[in-house]
Design goal:
The chain is α+β, with helices and mostly antiparallel strands and 158 residues long. It has four helices and eight strands, in the order E-H-E-E-E-H-E-E-E-H-H-E. Strands 1, 2, 3, 4, 5 and 8 form a six-stranded antiparallel beta sheet that branches. The chain has a two-stranded antiparallel sheet with strand order 6-7. The N and C termini lie far apart (32 Å). The structure holds 7,8-dihydro-7,7-dimethyl-6-hydroxypterin.
């Protein structure tokens, strides 16, 4: 069984609803069990600032799916929910990013695990701390310890 952590993000077309729909779609997948998820947080966009605030959350689940079939399943959900992505690092209706798979490292053309930017992003670490504060991160710190090292001042728990 693989233990998966994913980040969810949206800043278009009712972001809270987008995340709720995505979580419902995930829990409806027969290949996924033990789904849990964090609080939802709003935050200023990282990257280009001329776009709406984001809503983010983190979810974890167990699955027997291998990484690429899992990525396909997540990208299916993104497409089913009318993913709009206007430009690189621009606004989007729904983003489902694989953050961690067990303690594995993967470097594939379509998928890098751990997610290369996760440690520097408050909108990932703060919700991750909701569901697994004591888990060790790739830098050897617990999620809770690492949370104290990054800026989360613009995050608002919804
Ligand atoms: N900024 C925030 N706050 N949340 C996101 O999910 C997010 N996703 C992105 C970029 C554009 C980098 N900025 C973000 O892809």
């Amino acid at each position: 069984m693989n233990k998966i952590y994913i980040g969810l993000g949206s800043n278009l077309n009712n972001p809270i609803q987008q995340l709720e729909n995505a979580l419902a779609a995930l829990s409806a997948l027969p290949e996924i069990t033990d789904l849990i998820y964090s609080n939802f947080y709003s935050s200023k966009p990282v990257g280009p600032q001329d776009q709406p605030d984001f809503v983010n959350a983190v979810a974890s689940f167990s699955t027997l799916l291998d990484p690429i079939p899992l990525l396909d399943a997540l990208q299916n959900i993104e497409q089913e929910h009318n993913r709009i992505r206007e430009r690189h690092w621009g606004p989007r209706t729904l983003d489902l990013d694989i953050l961690l798979i067990n303690n594995d490292t993967l470097s594939l053309p379509r998928l890098t695990v751990p997610h290369p930017y996760m440690l520097e992003r408050g909108f990932v670490i703060k919700p991750l701390a909701d569901i697994t504060p004591g888990m060790l991160l790739p830098n050897g710190k617990t999620v809770e310890e690492h949370l104290h090292c990054i800026n989360t001042t613009d995050l608002v728990c919804l």
